[in-house]
Every structure is written in C-alpha cells, then in structure tokens.
Amino acid sequence: MDRANGVQSGDELFMLFGAFLARLRDAAVGAMSRASQRLLQGVVAFSVLALLLWISAFLYGSFYFSYMPLAAYSTPVYYYYRSDCDSPNSFMCSYPVANVSLMKNNKPVLTFGQAYQMTLQLDMPESETNQELGMFMIRTTCFARDGAQVVMSARAARQLLPASSSRFSMLRYKSNLLRTLSTLLFFPMLMSGAAEQKQVLAVELFSDYTDDPYSPSATALIEILSSKVQIYSSHLYIHARFSGVRYFLFNFPLLSAVVGMSSNLIFLCVLVVFSYMRLLLGRPVRAQINTAGRLGNGGNHDTPT
Length: 305
Fold this sequence. Notes:
Blueprint: H1 2-67, E1 72-76, E2 97-101, E3 103-104, E4 107-108, E5 115-125, H2 128-133, E6 136-143, E7 151-153, E8 160-162, E9 164-169, H3 176-185, H4 187-192, E10 198-210, E11 219-224, E12 233-240, H5 245-251, H6 253-299
Antiparallel strand pairs: 1-12, 2-11, 3-4, 5-10, 5-12, 6-9, 6-11, 7-8
Helix pairs in contact: 1-6, 5-6
C-alpha cells in the first residue's frame, strides 16, 4: 500500500514538473517571440526614420544648390593693344583692352535677379610713369552672347540703363622723402625679392549690378583709358550681395540646414503617420464590407420547393 502511494506521489511530482517545464517553455517561446517582434519593429522604425532623414537632407540640398547662386567669382584679366595701325610709326593703336568671360562651364556666372558687386584689382608698380600719370579712367561694358550690349533695369527710376560704368583711379600719393625712407627700410627684402615697390588698387566697377534675364551677360569689356599706364597683373572679382532668404542661407548655413531639414522631416513624418492611420482604419471597413457581402450572398439562396 505504501509502495503504491509512493509511486502515485512520484507520478504526480513528475507530472507537475513536466507541466512546469511546459509552462516555462511556453513562456520562453512567448518572450522570444515578443522580443523578435519588438526587434523587428525597432529595425523597421529605424529604417523608416533613416529613410526620412535621407529624403529630408536630399530635399534641402536640392533646394539649396538650385536656389543659391555663386557667392564669389574671380578671374585674371589680360590686356592687349590693337596693333593694326594705319601709321607705321605707331605700334599701339588703342588703350589697354581686356575681354573677360562671365561664363563658367558654359553657364552664366551671374544669376537673374541677384545683385553683384564687381571690383577690378590692379597691381601697379610705383614707377615714375605711373606717378606722373595721375588719374586715369576705367570703362567697363557688359555684352551678351550675340555681341549686343546688355541693358538692365533700374529699380528706382523704372528706366533702361546700359550696363556700363566709368571709374577713375590713381596711385596713392607718396612724397620723395617717404619713398626714399621706404626704400631704405625695406632694402633687404627688396634685394631678396620678398617685397616689391608696387601698389594694389581696388576699383569698384559696379556696386549693385543686376543681370538682364532676357539678355544675360556673357562678356565684360574692360578698357583703361590711358596708353601709358603700367600694370603688373589684374584680376576681376565678383561678389554676390545677398539679401532676404539668401542672406540667411549664406551667413547661417548650419542653422538654416537644421531648420530646413527639420521642417522636411516633420512634414514627411506627418505624411507617413496619416498614411498609416488611413491604412489601419481602412482594414475594419473592408472587413465589414466583406462580412456583409458574405452574409448577403448566403441569404439570397433560393430554397427549393
């Protein structure tokens, strides 16, 4: 009797242990299933967020590079003289003239509606000829691709003005005593070639130049109205004068990028959330329609007589 009771108690303990193991196995399987489901949801959410961030950055970058014009442009200026003189005693038939291209990669450098500042930089020696030259005039005219002179619109006067300018310039005055003292002071550097007796003149050709959208500028003709002027080298600098949204985008690039990408990301997130909610709300409606359709089809069967 006692042996039977012991066997029965052992069976009960074995059954209880087996049930415990089954419950433990079911709990482990359920936990692993929930963990894998949460991991899959996390991976999907991270992938969607990364995709939205990439799309936001792409949209902002596309807007920035399509809306922002070239901020600065510089090019060397090479002067030449006409030599087809009628008189055999004269070689130079014109003032120093330079044709400067306003094209880059076969595209105009200037953007329509954007104001630009054009500055001509001249490296001139402090020679006796330039000192005696005094004031000289620089004339600049912009031309289109077809060779016609560009015409731009004046904002205040509401009239058409030719895209040309004339500016005066001259070397800074130095007395003979100052030049002598400067030569003695910088004598070692002048002898070694580390310094030169020259002056750099910056002449503002246009302060607020706006290109004509119907006839964009392709070439700038620069003419120095003096046949005795001496120049080492020359460069043309074009700087955009930004205002409004372009001023904010150019001067605060990091802040504008954060604001632009955040705005795009919020809009895309709202769009995704609304699309997901519409998908979730559409499932019960479709289920009710399918159920009603099945019930209707089942109730329309004719009973045979």
